[in-house]
Amino acid sequence: MLKPKQGKLPADAHDSSVSVQEAWLAARDSDEDVTFDDDALNPHFSYLDERSLRHDVWFLDAVTALNHMRAAQTLGIQTSPYGGWVRRSFVMASVGYSRRRWRGRQTAERCLPARMLTWKAKARSCASRDRPTPGVRDLTIDPNTKLITDENFQNLPEPFRVGRYGYSPNQVVLTFDDGPDPEWTPKILDVLKREHAPATFFLIGIQTDKFSGLAKRIYNEGHTIGNHTFTHPDVSNISSTYMKVELNLTERLFASLMGIRAKLLRPPYAIDEEPDTADQVKPLEFAQDMGYITVGNRIDPNDWSDKPRRHTAEEISSYVLAHLPPCGANDLRCGNIVLLHDGGGNRAETVRALPMIIDGIRARGYSVVPVFQLFGKTRADVMAPLSTGERWGARLDGLGFWLFEAGIVSITWIFFPGRSAHDRAFSFYRDGRHLRPAA
Ligand SMILES: [Zn+2]
């Protein structure tokens, strides 16, 4: 319930419903204690927001659910006719019910964070995560009625918090996914060179192995290189071991070709950069543990899509220019990082749109900058040169990748004459793109 400190409520302020997780978070973020009303047996708290509006929050949790069931049972009301035992058990488990331990009047129980996650900041570029932690609450139980008569939080549970950072009012980053591609990547590099515009390329390992000369050209012309996995799987559906192999293979390939350790990552498929649940954030958490920085892509003009028809260069560029900062409160596609593609299909319109995008960005007073500049790092921070010892290992890896490539070519030549090796090896990736939006 919202109340102004004085005067009337602003027109845009209104009461709203929140989940128990959101209530806990609001109490935690406002540093207010959750108290338990003696009469209503209901937890609540109040806080003032930045506009001096007072929020009175009353919420239901497992404690109130258990009290409701107990009260109903004393009146002879069956609380859960279907699956009643399961539901009761679930509620009891949520408050840590134990017949032996609850004989006493006091018990301290854990309360777990919800499986939803929350966004920590409004900047719209790169993501970092805080891990969830359980809370602890002391419960007081009436030995006669078995009702919980007091709930006192020692500390509140903390869900996953995903933070975005890198917001800038006047800098824009151009990124290209799914290359290198022998037809489109050189054309894009030519435009970038002519326009003196830096960019970031998230390369697929299997393409980089095939077109290693292009990967080296990207690096030598001053652009930034990042990891887009080796075979472009949907990372929300693969095991952590599989993901580790995907990332390590690509990282070692970059090391063998360019003598660098690439620390930027863009996981394939947009859902994995904008996760909503704990399951979706797991791959990103895993990548962060491996030392990667995940780079988002708020401005996505869908240059890859050919359904119902391919977007024209004019449509691609006008979409990008319409979503530059400053971002409106409801413009979820506004940001500092533009997602384009230099591989995975016909990119003629992307190549044609690129000069229009760069000119439009600059005409509006923005600078086109390398991605590491957005979050205050250097080129060496995100593409660290290998030490002398590491270079020897990278050379051996390079031999392995050469044998891998030679093996694919040989198998294809024997079993699939007339068809390119990578047409076969890469076809599952291209086919998969028709099923889901790409990134
Ligand atoms: Zn991709």
How many strand elements? Answer: 19
Rg calculated over all Cα atoms: 27 Å
Within the largest sheet, what's the order of strands? 6-10-7-16-15
Class of the largest domain, according to the CATH hierarchy? Alpha Beta
SSE class? alpha/beta
At CATH level 3, the topology of the largest domain is TIM Barrel
Task: Provide key terms for this protein.
TIM Barrel, 5-stranded mixed sheet, elongated, 5-stranded parallel sheet, alpha/beta, about 450 residues, 2 domains, binds zinc ion
Structural commentary:
Helix 4 runs parallel beside helix 10 (348-363), helix 7 (240-258) packs across helix 13 (388-415) and helix 9 (313-322) runs parallel beside helix 10. The protein has two domains: 20-164, no CATH class; 166-399, Glycoside hydrolase/deacetylase (TIM Barrel, Alpha-Beta Barrel). It is elongated, with a radius of gyration of 27 Å. It has helices at residues 20-30, 62-74, 84-94, 184-195, 205-210, 212-220, 240-258, 278-289, 313-322, 348-363, 371-374, 379-382, 388-415, 421-425, 427-433, and strands at residues 2-4, 35-37, 42-48, 53-58, 106-111, 117-119, 126-130, 135-141, 148-155, 160-165, 171-177, 200-203, 224-227, 260-262, 264-265, 293-295, 337-341, 367-368, 383-385. Helix content is 38%, strand content 20%. It has 15 helices and 19 strands. The protein has a five-stranded mixed beta sheet with strand order 6-10-7-16-15, covered by helices on one side. It has 439 residues and is an alpha/beta fold. Residues 119-125 and 427-437 have low confidence and may be disordered. It binds zinc ion. Zinc ion binds at residues 177-178, 228, 232, 268, 438-439.
